[in-house]
Amino acid sequence: MGVAMQPAPAGDDAVIAATRLWLERAVIGLNLCPFAKSVHVKGQVRFVVSPATGAAALLEDLGRELLHLQDSDPEQLDTTLLIHPHALQDFSDYLWFIDLADGVLEQLRLVGELQVAQFHPQFQFEGTSPDAISNYTNRSPYPILHLLREDSIDRAVAAFPDASVIYQRNIETLEDLGLARWKALLGLLDETP
């Protein structure tokens, strides 16, 4: 049986290091998101580890980070990865939380300005089996709320007009790669004898 994407609990530096490795090797390295490289290279990605252990505290952290992103100069900070290694470990709880996250956007009147994307170690698209390689397009070392600027998304879509093909291309990339090579890419161990 393979080890789950999520490593053992670690300090903030280790959590950020694992997330950065995933971003660099998987998201950017495999070109799963053609828009990620430029903001990463420019140092415009903020990595924040939430100490929250429950939904209420995570909602507070989310609100604070959304406001921080809104108030920041886009040339300095384009996107935030709010990593929450101690909260919402179960994917069904995480899915339930997404509606609450959208509610925070509405409450702060940030709909149309910012949005929240989701990554999780157990991410599973509806209608797929848990071990389907397609799920790995949205699997991360820890649960992550990815805070994005709508303007950045609009610019990215303008530069890559047929963004709908990205999803299919990502699945093909991961199918070609295979699970064993995915794990090797991220330095994950396999416990299979």
How would you sum up this structure in a few lines?
This protein has 193 residues and is an alpha+beta fold. The chain has helices spanning 12-28, 36-41, 55-71, 91-107, 150-159, 164-177, 179-185, and strands at residues 45-49, 79-83, 114-119, 144-149. α3 (55-71) packs across α4.
Number of strands: 4
Low-confidence stretches: 1-9
Number of helical elements: 7
- Overall pLDDT score: 88
Largest sheet: 4 strands, mixed
Whole-Å distance between the termini?
A: 9 Å
Number of domains: 1
- Reading the helices and strands in chain order gives HHEHEHEEHHH
Going by helix content, strand content and strand pairing, the class is alpha+beta
Strand content: 5-15%
Q: Work out the helicity level.
A: 40-55%
Shape by Cα distribution:
globular
Name the strands of the widest sheet in spatial order: 1-2-4-3
Q: From the alpha-carbon coordinates, what is the Rg to the nearest angstrom?
A: 16 Å
